[in-house]
Write a structure and sequence with these properties.
The complex is a heterodimer of chains A (134) and B (430). Chain A contains four helices and no strands. With 134 residues, chain A is mostly helical. The radius of gyration of chain A is 16 Å and the shape is elongated. Chain B is mainly beta and 430 residues long. Chain B has a single domain, classed as TolB, C-terminal domain (Neuraminidase, 6 Propeller). Chain B is 3% helix and 36% strand. Classes of the chains: A mainly alpha (134), B mainly beta (430).
Chain lengths: 134, 430
């Protein structure tokens, strides 16, 4: 039996998306302006994104254990979050390099992470909607 | 021998970083071999693990001996030998840099492990050897409540002290044990953020000018370009009026200055940038040319462009001067002093350099005092180890900072880890 996403799980998932999207926007701003404060913002947003993503990931894992591997989309959802977290962590290390040493690797990673989290959020929310409908 | 001497923190030199190997640390002289810059996902960090000296002592060359002339100090940095033989010791710890990024928070915590937990004294301690037996039995606080004093210079009867925020002046009479009053401010110095807070100091031979070394506000502009206004340069200050002009630029962290006897030429030791590999960029000893630009932040060792700086400045890079003499990457040179014939024939002509020691390197370097021999007023030949043994068997007992030559025949070495001032003398000198 699959239940809809727990409201807190949904909050962590949506927050992950917001923070990583913030990282991407701040990276774009730094890339275009060389204004280093944007990179400082990105660095902290990344930490926040990793924390929220980590919690959402644990929740996704619990859900997967409960429903078992039959529910393929739940497994894909977890893997997307995991991939986003790992790349996000590498992105955080890249952001710890001084000044422009972060670029362009940081921007590329932030883009990939954002895409992964968008996909994970879509799948996670869609999953629970299907369950509700059935 | 040093491979296990420190707490290893090179958890992830993931992409290209070579952990532990760091071959070929010998980058000395006018034309050092510069490898390509490395991009490290985590900077290699090997932080000194402090320990008491116990029965150990620093090691000096045959024919010399070393004694501790002052212990239990509060972060001694630079020293000054006064005309009557008294020694002034500047003690303090500075910097106002806020922790702006997650990295700042983590790195500050790790680096603090390699330094003394003692609070900076913000004072000048005076020690005196009353009877000339080499034991400094008198000790007084010459001046207190200073703001991270570092550079010291005596011109006639005026004692100049470079605090982290201002150049100040005391009146000084021969034999004085305590300052007669509060200092007079000669000129303010750039102090916002103060990432590299130490203000080094030297006086011209005629005493008309003072030279103040001002370090950069970042490793490589990671606090933004505006934070670097009036940083990474040497000021020439009119001793009488306090008016200043910029003497030379592009010197990332000119941690010690010295006036060459006879020539009137200003020399500096400069700490170069981190996080592009174990063998980049060499710290250096150089004569400082008036109006010269030495590269930071745009380039290093002359015209090698640092791609981490944006916007770049090819026009300035084209004017960048290569320094005179490489001391090796990450050695952290913090002291320089011209020698005197009283130091013995082998060490008569040249400079002593205090090397605080590395962190951004798997295999530690520095942690010693070297002698760079000179010929015809220029560095000539490889550096010679003069005081070593600060690291042994996995532990770090001391970290040299300022070095000063006592014209009576002694080298004074400040050690800000064991809070000691050491004195090295030729054995037949006493």
């Amino acid at each position: 039996m699959q239940r809809p996403l727990h409201p807190l799980h949904a909050v962590f998932l949506a927050g992950t998306l917001t923070l990583f999207l913030g990282v991407l926007l701040a990276d774009i701003a730094y890339f275009n302006t060389y204004e280093v404060q944007w990179k400082n913002f990105a660095s902290w947003l990344l930490v926040g994104g990793l924390v929220l993503c980590g919690v959402a990931m644990l929740w996704a894992l619990c859900r997967l254990i409960r429903v078992g591997w039959r529910m393929r989309s739940s497994a894909v959802y977890l893997l997307l979050l995991l991939a986003a977290w790992v790349l996000g962590f590498i992105d955080a290390l890249v952001h710890a390099s001084d000044a422009w040493a972060t670029m362009p690797r940081g921007l590329v990673l932030s883009t990939i992470v954002t895409v992964l989290v968008v996909a994970a959020t879509w799948l996670g929310m869609f999953d629970s909607r299907q369950v509700e409908a059935s | 021998m040093n491979s296990r001497t420190c707490l290893v923190l090179c958890a992830g030199s993931v992409l290209l970083g070579a952990c532990g190997g760091d071959p070929d640390a010998s980058q000395y002289g006018a034309d050092p071999k510069l490898p390509d810059p490395q991009s490290q996902l985590l900077p290699t960090m090997m932080i000194a693990k402090p320990a008491d000296w116990g029965e150990r002592r620093p090691i000096v060359p045959k024919g010399f001996r070393i004694t501790a002339i002052a212990t239990d100090l509060a972060i001694p940095r630079q020293t000054l030998v006064l005309p009557n033989g008294d020694i002034l010791i500047a003690e303090g710890r500075g910097g106002y840099a806020p922790k702006l990024t997650p990295k700042d928070v983590i790195a500050a915590h790790i680096k603090a492990k390699g330094s003394s937990p003692v609070k900076g004294g913000n004072r000048l301690t005076l020690v005196r050897d009353r009877d000339g037996d080499g034991a400094y039995e008198v000790r007084t606080a010459f001046a207190e409540n200073l703001n991270a004093p570092y550079g010291l210079a005596l011109v006639g009867n005026q004692l100049f002290v470079a605090n982290q925020d201002a150049l100040v002046r005391f009146d000084y009479q021969d034999g004085q044990l305590n300052a007669s009053g509060a200092p007079v401010t000669v000129t303010g110095l750039p102090f916002a953020i103060n990432h590299h807070w130490t203000k080094s100091l030297a006086a011209s031979a005629d005493g008309l000018f003072l030279y103040v070394g001002i370090g950069s506000n970042s490793n490589i502009t990671e606090r933004g370009m505006t934070a670097e206004t009036d940083r990474a340069m040497v000021w020439q200050v009119d001793a009488r009026t306090g008016a200043h002009k910029i003497f030379a630029t592009g010197l990332r962290n000119p941690t010690a200055l010295a006036m060459q006897p006879g020539t009137g030429r200003l020399w500096a030791v400069v700490n170069e940038r981190d996080e592009i590999g174990p063998n980049l960029v060499p710290d250096y000893l150089t004569s400082v040319r008036e109006g010269g630009f030495y590269g930071w932040p745009f380039s290093y060792w002359g015209k090698n462009v640092d791609v981490r700086v944006r916007p770049q400045d090819p026009e300035r890079v084209a004017t960048a001067i290569a320094p005179d003499y490489a001391l090796g990457s990450h050695v952290a040179a913090l002291g320089v002093a011209f020698s005197a014939p009283t130091m013995g024939a082998q060490f008569a002509d040249g400079v002593f350099v205090g090397e605080h020691g590395s962190w951004n390197r798997g295999l530690p370097v520095g942690y010693k005092v070297v002698f760079v021999p000179f010929r015809d007023g220029r560095p000539a030949g490889e550096p010679i180890d003069f005081v070593t043994g600060f690291q042994a068997e996995g532990l770090t007992h001391g970290r040299p900072v300022g070095v000063t030559v006592d014209p009576r025949g002694a080298l004074i070495v400040a050690d800000d880890l064991s809070n000691t001032v050491w004195r090295v003398t030729p054995e037949d000198g006493e």
